[in-house]
Write a structure and sequence with these properties.
CATH topology of chain A: OB fold (Dihydrolipoamide Acetyltransferase, E2P)
Structural class of chain B: mainly alpha
CATH superfamily of chain A: CheA-289, Domain 4
Largest interface: A-B, 17 and 15 residues
Number of helices of chain B: 10
Oligomer: heterodimer
Number of domains of chain A: 1
Structural class of chain A: mainly beta
CATH class of chain A: Mainly Beta
Radius of gyration of chain A: 15 Å
Helix content of chain B: over 70%
Strand order of the largest sheet of chain A: 8-1-2-10-9
Number of strands of chain A: 10
Strand content of chain A: over 45%
Distance between the termini of chain B: 79 Å
Radius of gyration of chain B: 86 Å
Number of helices of chain A: 3
Shape of chain A: globular
Strand content of chain B: under 5%
């Protein structure tokens, strides 16, 4: 992590998917939006929910639950869209990700993140940086730049 | 099925049917027979009569031909022969025509035609022969006439010579006797010749040549005389004359023989023809006889047939008459006998003997009638028996009735006193009912007030519920605002974190904002929860009001009903009082009625006795005995009558207090009395 401050601390945004709590570094978070109407795009992957208008720009939106292989559920009043800024191959792209709820912005020391090979095959391990233990709960820290493969990014760009 | 069991209509139908069948059979046979006779008569006219007619015609023609031939044979007129031939031809043609229609001819007739045709041929041949013979005869006669002439001439020539010789001798007075003798001889010869000729003509005209022998003798005489002359005369000239005379005499004799023979042949031919004709006639007459005989046979056959038919008709008619008479008698008997029995039975019943019986074992209409009559009798028997029993019962009952009417009188007295007690009780009841009515009316006004208050309370609770619901809605908006504020603070935190060291102060503010938002959220949630339970409570209260209001309204209604009922009870009590007075009156009437009933019971007993006498007219086997009963009954009745009379007096004495009670009764009673 390059964006650590001088105290060796980093800010993470925590959010919920099902019963699990995930954390993402604030550098890849641009904005948090309330759930709104999504325009569907035909012949797109299942996790690709469609497009929304973000201050005059077109923003593709994906369902994080589907992307991470979790079962789909209906949206609640707590459902939010995270506007992500993903850097890949010297390119940045903005993507909306639907999460069940946004919880907090927290500051952790970098060394609090423990690598966790024992997570098994439930999640794609290359976009999980590690796991943190907070108040007897485990929070999975995600590397948002690795969540999408190159092909998926190309797909997303084509959608735009 | 037995004859007796047949229904009369079937009997009649069977009888008449049988007669009709017999008549049809007789009629059919007669028709068949008469048709046969008609056909046979036809065959007589078609077959046998033609035979007779034809044979008659043939016979007639044959007779005609035969007679013509006869006349021809006698008169030698060719015209007769010609006519005979004409008839023969006609006959032959007729037969040919018949033969052409051979197929239609009767066998006998056809055979006759064939034989008669061959006979006719013979006939024709004979006629031809006769014709030839007649021509021969004519020529023979001519020859004979010529020979006779030459004989006479020769005789005269000789005589002339002798006479001239004699004259000469006389003149010369040398008359010789022998010349005179010769003249005499010659004259004799001439005389014999003339005699023969005259007789010959005579025979011709008589058609009798039986004296031919005489002629031969005469010619022999001529010959002897010539011989004498020849002896006496030697003169050559005379001898020449004599020779001539001899020759002509011989010729004459010869010609005469020929003529006679020819004549005989003709007669023979005629005879044969006559025989042939007779044969034909016999053939035809046989045919005619046969035809007539066969016709007669057919006529006899027809007559016998007619006789047979007539016999069948007569026998059939006699049979049907006998059958009809028997049937009629049988049917009449079958109707009249049971009718007689039925009449006797009905007469017995009319005389009242219901034990009479009618026994006829039949299944026809009579059987039904008998059955019905018996049923009627049984019914009558039952009815009379029942009446008799009933009369008994009536007699018993009238006695009981007397007794009962007495007890009714007694009961009436008790009833009157009871009615008085009831009247007093009713007065008390009336007072308590009035109290009830007043209480009920008060309860009613209280219940009405309570209902009004409950209704306004209910409206208030409803308003309260609406207000609490509105608060809950407003609180939701506050919750939403808190949530949005939370998201805004998170966005701010993210921005602050992204700004790094420069955003640290801003991060603190954002954190505070977040905390405020969370507190607002918690408060809103709690208010929401509290207002939710408030709404529930208000709702429950409202439900309670909703259930209570109708209950109170029901109560009000019930109280109103109680009030109305109390009023009705009050008037009812009055009516009951009135009714009791009426009741009392009725009791008096009952007592009077009981007395009347006792009188009626006596009348009833008298009537029952009369009825018993009436029904005893019918003999039913269970005769009613009312005599001794009647006496005991009347004995009872008399005592009863006295008893009931006393009772009625008793009732009258008890009536007075009942009337007084009525006088003291209230307004309602007076109203009731008007009715």
């Amino acid at each position: 992590m390059s964006d650590t401050n001088e105290n060796g601390m980093s800010h993470y945004l925590t959010f919920q998917l099902g019963n699990e709590v995930f954390a993402a570094h604030v550098k890849s978070i641009l904005k948090i939006l309330e759930m709104q109407k999504i325009t569907e795009v035909p012949r797109s992957p299942a996790y690709m929910k469609g497009l929304i208008n973000l201050r005059g720009n077109v923003l593709p939106v994906i369902d994080a639950r589907l992307k991470f292989g979790m079962a789909a559920t209906g949206y609640t009043e707590k459902t939010c869209i995270l506007v992500l800024n993903i850097a890949i191959d010297q390119e940045t792209i903005e993507v909306g990700a639907i999460v069940d709820a946004v919880m907090d912005v927290m500051e952790f020391p970098d060394n609090a993140i423990k690598p966790s090979p024992s997570l098994g095959s439930k999640y794609k391990s290359d976009f999980i940086e590690g796991v943190m233990k907070v108040d007897e709960r485990f929070i999975m820290v995600l590397n948002m730049d690795s969540v999408f493969s190159t092909e998926e990014i190309i797909d997303l760009k084509e959608v735009i | 099925m037995k004859w007796n069991n047949l229904k009369i209509k079937y009997k009649l139908a069977l009888g008449f049917g049988a007669i009709i069948v017999i008549l049809i059979i007789i009629g059919g046979i007669s028709i068949v027979e008469f048709t046969k006779i008609e056909r046979d008569s036809g065959s007589i006219s078609e077959q046998y009569l033609p035979g007779v007619i034809i044979s008659n015609k043939l016979e007639r023609n044959t007779f005609r031909i035969s007679s013509l031939l006869n006349s021809f044979a006698l008169g030698k007129k060719q015209a007769d022969l010609k006519e005979a031939k004409k008839y023969l031809l006609e006959l032959e043609n007729y037969l040919d025509n018949l033969a052409l229609a051979k197929n239609q001819l009767e066998e006998n007739l056809a055979k006759t035609i064939i034989t008669s045709k061959s006979t006719l041929k013979e006939y024709r041949a004979l006629m031809d022969e006769m014709a030839g013979e007649s021509i021969q005869l004519e020529s023979n006669r001519a020859v004979m006439d010529e020979a006779a002439e030459s004989f006479v001439d020769n005789c005269f020539d000789y005589l002339k010579g002798q006479e001239s010789l004699l004259a000469y001798q006389i003149d010369s007075r040398k008359a010789k006797r022998e010349v005179l003798e010769r003249i005499t001889l010659a004259n004799n010869i001439l005389d014999i010749g003339n005699f023969i000729r005259i007789n010959n003509f005579k025979n011709q005209s008589d058609n009798n040549f039986s004296n031919q022998e005489e002629f031969n003798n005469r010619f022999a005489e001529i010959d002897q005389l010539l011989i004498l002359l020849e002896k006496t005369d030697s003169d050559p000239d005379n001898r020449f004359y004599l020779t001539n005379i001899r020759v002509s005499t011989a010729a004459y004799h010869q010609a005469m023989d020929d003529y006679i023979n020819s004549y005989k042949r003709l007669q023979h031919g005629n005879k044969q023809a006559h025989e042939t004709g007779s044969r034909l006639v016999s053939i035809y007459s046989t045919l005619a006889e046969n035809s007539v005989a066969e016709s007669a046979g057919f006529v006899a056959y027809s007559i016998s047939k007619i006789k047979d038919s007539l016999n069948i008709l007569i026998i059939g008619l006699i049979l049907s008459i006998i059958f009809s008479a028997l049937l009629g008698w049988q049917i009449a008997r079958s109707i009249s006998r049971p009718l007689k029995k039925g009449v006797a039975f009905a007469r017995e019943i009319a005389e009242g003997n219901l034990e009479a019986t009618l026994e006829i074992d039949r299944n026809d209409e009579m059987g039904e009638l008998v059955e019905t009559l018996n049923a009627m009798k049984a019914k009558l028997h039952n009815t009379i028996s029942s009446i008799q029993a009933a009369v008994q019962h009536i007699a018993d009952a009238s006695a009981q009735m007397s007794q009962t009417s007495q007890s009714i009188s007694q009961g009436s007295t008790e009833q009157a006193s009871s009615a008085e007690e009831i009247s007093a009780a009713m007065e008390e009841m009336s007072a308590s009912i009035s109290q009830n009515t007043a209480n009920a009316q008060r309860t009613e006004s209280i219940a009405a007030q309570a209902t009004g208050k409950m209704k306004s309370g209910n409206a208030n609770v409803m308003d309260l519920t609406a207000a609490i619901k509105e608060i809950a809605e407003k609180i939701t908006i506050i919750g939403d605002i808190a949530y949005q504020t939370n998201i805004l603070s998170l966005n701010a935190s993210v921005e602050a974190a992204r700004a790094g060291e420069y955003g640290r102060g801003f991060a603190v503010v954002a954190d505070e904002v977040k905390k405020l938002a969370e507190r607002s959220q918690v408060a809103a949630t709690e208010i929401d929860k509290v207002s939710g339970s408030g709404v529930n409570l208000a709702e429950e209260s409202r439900q309670l009001f909703i259930t209570i209001v109708p209950q109170i309204e029901d109560t009000l209604k019930l109280v109103q009903e109680i009030t109305a009922s109390s009023l009705e009870q009050s008037s009812g009590a009055g009516q009951v009082n009135d009714s009791i007075q009426q009741f009392n009156q009725v009791i008096q009437q009952n007592a009077a009625a009981a007395q009347e009933m006792a009188t009626n019971a006596e009348e009833l007993a008298t009537q029952a006795e009369y009825l018993t006498e009436m029904t005893n007219f019918f003999k039913t086997g269970n005769r009613t005995q009312t005599g001794h009963k009647k006496e005991s009954y009347f004995a009872k009745k008399k005592s009863k009558e006295l008893y009931s009379g006393k009772n009625s007096l008793q009732i009258k004495s008890t009536q007075k207090p009942g009337v007084d009670l009525r006088m003291g009764s209230d307004r309602l009673d007076n109203d009731f009395e008007k009715y």
